[in-house]
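ESCALATION

Customer reports they have been waiting on this structure for their group meeting. Please prioritize. Original submission:
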Amino acid sequence: MLRLISRSLLLLAICAGLSACAGVKPWERDLLAKPQMELDPHPLQSAFDDHIYFSKEASSGGRGFGGGGCGCN
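Update from on-call: job pushed to the front of the queue and completed.
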């Protein structure tokens, strides 16, 4: 019984995942090509923030939390 339920849930998840795939029509591509739709809409600002964070913390990456440092490099 448990096997049947787990297989049914797996099949349902696969069907739900495949039904979410939709093609983008040519007239809808202008909305997706906007800079705000990128994963990082402000790459220069992010690079600047990374440099400041690296200078303060002597580390790279992991901008997901707050913190401080002396700022000396």
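Sent to customer with the following note: Residues 2-19 form the longest helix (18 residues).
Escalation resolved.
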